[in-house]
Amino acid sequence: MTNPDDKPAGNGTSPRQSETSELAARIRKAQEARAAANGSQQASRQGDMSTLARGLRIGAEFVAAILVGSGIGYLIDFFAGTSPWALLIMFMVGFAAGIVNVTRVVAELNADKTASDDADSVD
Q1: SS3 for 123?
Q2: Model pTM greater than 0.70?
Q3: Where are stretches of biased composition, namely Polar residues (predicted)?
Q4: Is the model's pLDDT at 95 over the cut of 90?
């Protein structure tokens, strides 16, 4: 009696072994493709800011511009004795600078996001 797992004398491989090796090759190929896809997604996620971080950066830059403008206006008023005119004028300048900063940062973040989206679609 022969064992069904014994190799036949003719070609050296049984049909069962060839099916197993084909399946193993397909599994390996699928795993490599999945690993490559996950690796590129993780790399792009690490470079991106989270939504909370974006909001905090934009808000901080806006508030900082207003505070710097107001502080400079206060100092001008303090030393020149022109209270409250320099403070009011510099507050408005700081507000305008804050809006310019926010616009610049949002445009920069959108350009980075668009560039990363384009790079992902090419892959």
Answers
A1: coil
A2: no
A3: 11-21, 38-49
A4: yes
